[in-house]
Every structure is written in C-alpha cells, then in structure tokens.
Amino acid sequence: MLIICLLLLAANFLFAGVLPASENHIIGGRRIEIKEAPWQVSLRLDGNHICSGSIYSKRIIITAAHCLNFGNGTEYRIDHLSVGVGSTARSNGTVFKVQAKMSHPKFENGSPPNDIALLRLEKPLMMSDSVQPIPLVKKVPAAGSIATATGWGVAGFHTDMSFIVPEYLQGISLEVLSLEYCENYYEDPVAKSSICAKPGICDGDSGGPLVVDLELAGVVAASSDYCDGPSISSSVFYLKDWILEAVNALDQ
C-alpha cells in the first residue's frame, strides 16, 4: 500500500479553492485550546495554512521538509512563507515572516525518511501562555507509549471525497507501535529514523508535533491515502544531531 506525504494532496485541493471550512474534529480527535499545545504553529503559503510546526526557540520552528516544496522538488520561495502562532483558530494568530529555511540534506521528496526542516523567523517570538517552545525528546519512545498529535489537518471527507478541514485546533492521542507494524501494513521498509503510530493523522497535519511526555518525539510525515492507516513521523531522537547543527547554522 502506498504511503503518501500528507501535505501534497492538501496543497492541490487548497490551490484549487475547494477546501471546505468546517468545525468537525480531526479524525478521531477533539477540539483543544492553543494553551494545551502552545508550541503548535501554522505554516502558511501566501497566507493559507498548508502544514503545522513546533516552536523550538524564539526564532526556530521545526516542521517537515516536504512542507517546503510543491511536491516535485521545487521549493517555495521564502518570501511566500509565514508562520502563525498563539491561536486556536487556524486563520488567526500573530504572523511572523520566515527569514531562512533548511531541510535535511538526505530528504528525498515523496519519501518519509529524514522528512524534517527548520525555519528561522524574521523576528523573535514573544513567549506567553499560548506561545511556548517544546523540548526535544531524550529517548526513543517505546512501543505502547501514548503520544499526542495536534493540528488543523483534514477531519474527514464529504460524500464527494472533498476534505472537511477544521477552523479550530484539534488534538488526538495515539499509540506508538513497532516499526514492524508499519512495515507489515504498508508492505514496505520503514526507516529506523521513523516512529509508527496509530490512529492515523491526515492531510494538513504534516510537520506537526508528535509529543510524548511533553517532549517533541516526532515530526508528522506521512499516512495512508485516506488517513485510515498508521502514521509515520520523523524521529526527533534519531535526527537530534542534525537538528542541533541546523539550529547553530541558522542562528549564525
């Protein structure tokens, strides 16, 4: 079964202008307030939400590498990207321009391994109850661990299979599974630098946080075609060395 990068289908519908507004929940999830996940941000292209991300520091945002290109490897221009913070509503929040971006050098478009990128904001964030960084995980979450994912991704499908997209932030609890579970489900190898979890996450949630014990354990990367299978996230623990090197490079 094919694994898809979550953003790509969402972006195609977004630019076609057929993403319907809705207050329905993320698939299997519930509405939450931004203060429950103050590290959550909305990554925007020309002002439209395309992906999620996590606050690492006042100037650095962690997201997925595939969120930064059209799907054919051509990257979005930096002056078209911005980040919205501090709001439960997808279309609100304080907006910050992106000054610089860096994707993992081993990321290959359309493939989950190494699907991680960092953004440097033009101006520093003002921290508050609704805007807070999240620490990086200190160990690989074991199978059976409970994780939390948040975002404004697809909450379901209309009868014509167009997306139901929530205006308000959604949260869901997931169970971390063995990598073998995802390999068996997708009948495809899964990189060691990944986290397998279920239930699935959906289009528009890409780049968002997979949180275990209030630490950033993963960056949401991919799921099944109709979001009914397990999701795959990039493992922050395995990619931590690159993250710290990239932070230093962007902060120069």
UniProtKB/TrEMBL annotation:
Q: Does the keyword Signal apply?
A: yes
Main location per the UniProt record: secreted
Q: Which InterPro entries match?
A: Peptidase_S1, Peptidase_S1_PA, Peptidase_S1_PA_chymotrypsin, Peptidase_S1A, Trypsin_dom, TRYPSIN_HIS, TRYPSIN_SER
Q: What class of enzyme is it?
A: hydrolase
Task: Give the matching SUPFAM superfamilies.
Answer: Trypsin-like serine proteases
Q: Which EC number(s) does UniProt give?
A: 3.4.21.4
Segment forming the signal sequence = 1-16
- Disulfide bond keyword on record: yes
The highest taxon in the source lineage is Eukaryota
User: Which UniProt keywords are listed?
Assistant: Disulfide bond, Hydrolase, Protease, Secreted, Serine protease, Signal, Zymogen
* Compartments where located: Secreted, Extracellular space
Q: Which reaction does it catalyse?
A: Preferential cleavage: Arg-|-Xaa, Lys-|-Xaa
What's a Pfam family this protein contains? Trypsin
Q: Spell out the family assignment given in the record's similarity comment.
A: Belongs to the peptidase S1 family.
Q: Which PANTHER family match?
A: AT26814P-RELATED, POLYSERASE-RELATED
Q: What is this protein called?
A: trypsin
